[in-house]
Amino acid sequence: MAPYEALYGRRCRSLVGWFEVGEAALIGPDSVHDAMKKVQLIKDKLKTAQGLQKSYADVRKRDLEFQIDNWVFLKVSPMKGVMRFGKKGKLSPRYVGPYKILKRVGKVAYELELQVELAAVHPVFHISMLKKCVGDPASIVPLKVWL
């Protein structure tokens, strides 16, 4: 049975297989009952698989929350096409910074105090692009940014 048929309880009526509506009446009650059992079995298996995937995602989920004046690193790999930080390719840095958090914007976004070289980048970032700076941020050597 196709996933569409299992989900919606009817066959997908494409241009290739355009069947008449009256043809479905030729099926006996036993085959309809078997089909209903198969649909229920497929739905149960899909629900089980969805639950497993959710449990895997919940294990990897990080509940992050930063305070104002914390120091964080900024993930730069999504911005490869926009701006290059240091080397090109595999040796390019994954995170740059540290940057100071100025304020919280909404539930999952933070505004950072960026350098003058990064003036072209919007200062508000999603929490998934931030990594907490552990240690003294004054002892970290800043990375030279090439535009």
Per DSSP, what share of the residues sits in E-state strands of 2 or more residues? 15-25%
Pattern of helices and strands? HHEEEEE
* Separate helix tally: 2
Strand order of the largest sheet: 4-3-2-1-5
Query: How many β-strand runs?
Result: 5
Could you name the ranges where pLDDT drops below 50 across 5 or more consecutive residues? none
CATH topology of the largest domain: SH3 type barrels
Principal-axis shape: elongated
User: How many structural units, i.e. domains?
Assistant: 2
Main beta sheet strand tally, sense and closure: 5 strands, antiparallel
Q: Which bin fits the share of residues in helices?
A: 25-40%
Task: Quickly give the CATH architecture of the largest domain.
Answer: Roll
Q: Quick one: CATH class of the largest domain?
A: Mainly Beta
Structural class determined from secondary elements = alpha+beta
Nearest-integer average pLDDT: 77
Radius of gyration: 27 Å
Separation, N- and C-terminal Cα atoms: 55 Å
Describe this structure in words.
It contains two helices and five strands. The chain is α+β, with helices and mostly antiparallel strands. The chain has a five-stranded antiparallel sheet, with no helix packed on it. A hairpin with a 3-residue loop joins strand 2 and strand 3. The model has no long low-confidence stretch (mean pLDDT 77). InterPro entries: SH3_Tf2-1 (IPR056924). It comes from Solanum verrucosum. It holds the Pfam family SH3_Tf2-1. This is Tf2-1-like SH3-like domain-containing protein.
